[in-house]
Design brief:
2 copies of one chain form a homodimer.
Chain A lengths: L1 H13 L6 H8 L6 H4 L3 H23 L5 H14 L1 H7 L2 H12 L1 H24 L4 H25 L2 H16 L3
Helix pairs in contact in A: 1-2, 1-4, 4-8, 5-8, 5-10, 6-9, 6-10, 7-8, 8-9, 9-10
The structure holds a DNA duplex (18 and 18 nucleotides).
DNA sequence: GTCTATAGGCAGATAGAC
DNA sequence: GTCTATCTGCCTATAGAC
């Protein structure tokens, strides 16, 4: 659906609230009123965007599983954040930004947006567990790794400086190399 | 100024855009139109709030300097985030949230909001330097520590779970104990 | 200086022609 | 199914009484 793709891009660049239906429709090259033929409300459109994103994340994590060793999976995971440093410096983390926005709106949107974090944390926890970490420590490691990457994305965005992001991914890779 | 205090609280809880002038005025128990006697525009009010916050941060950092050893200063720094775990789980990090919002609005607001991060990073960098870190590593350590705390605040807020925050602060304290 | 009423503009949502 | 015109409501900002 072109509308979902357009909305996805605008939500990342401008946030949920500043992305007007008219903007999204223009970006998708469809008439403004037409949006309501496909989605009853703006919230429904947001839900569709989040569902699509979460599906992408699940597919990405499944793809990382083709890498045999958990350590290399984690390093590849971090590598994806490094690869997208420029995008993160320009527009922030898509997942973190959406969660932030959704947290403010509250309700069903917030819990659906949080779903992306849940997918990531559960997957990361499994990798740390496969590296021999105790259950509690595996989850703590997962939270720590994601917190570093999200925090670095926020700082990189605030300073419009991708090197902040690369700094942190390098640090995390070192940590993972010596983990366990 | 009562208006600035009220605005500060609402900006933290609801974000910049969702905090209407009327809301702020009600919170401060002054008539809505009155706000424009003190501030020409909403942006000017936001600037006043940010200036006040940054002054508080500068004062806090100066206060931490009374602690003699840099390691204990850093541990106290992290301890302040631990102490405010519940607040962070409920409303997110005030600094991070404001920066996120201001980044989206762009312009003068974004750079002023970023000023809080600059204060924190410069101070942290000095402490790591005092612990014997090379200049580059001191700054990297500062960015890493702040990224962890900001990322943990975002995750704690998304899951409405303060233990995520406490988990990360405990981890950071361990790291600082063995640093250098 | 303090307050009320309201102008002006924009965004979400709808009605109804085609 | 597709599109235009418009309603409704909210928010910033102002005008002007007191």
């Amino acid at each position: 659906m072109r509308l979902i793709v357009a909305a996805n891009r605008l939500f990342h660049r401008q946030g949920l609230e500043r992305s007007a239906i008219a903007d999204i429709a223009r970006e998708a090259a469809v008439p403004a009123g037409n949006v309501y033929y496909y989605f009853k409300t703006k919230e429904e459109l947001v839900e569709a965007v989040i569902a699509r994103r979460n599906a992408f994340i699940a597919a990405w994590l499944a793809d990382l599983e083709t890498e045999a060793a958990p350590r290399e999976r984690l390093i590849r995971f971090v590598g994806e954040f490094e690869r997208t440093s420029d995008m993160r410096a320009r527009h922030g983390c898509p997942v973190g930004g959406l969660c932030h926005d959704a947290n403010r709106l509250g309700g069903a949107l917030a819990s659906q947006a949080r779903g992306a974090f849940e997918l990531l944390i559960d997957w990361l926890r499994d990798q740390f567990a496969a590296l021999g970490a105790e259950p509690g420590e595996a989850r703590a490691g997962a939270l720590h790794l994601l917190a570093c990457l999200e925090g670095a994305s926020l700082l990189a965005h605030s300073f419009a400086d991708p090197s902040v992001m690369r700094n942190e991914t390098a640090r995390l890779k070192d940590w993972l190399e010596g983990y366990g």
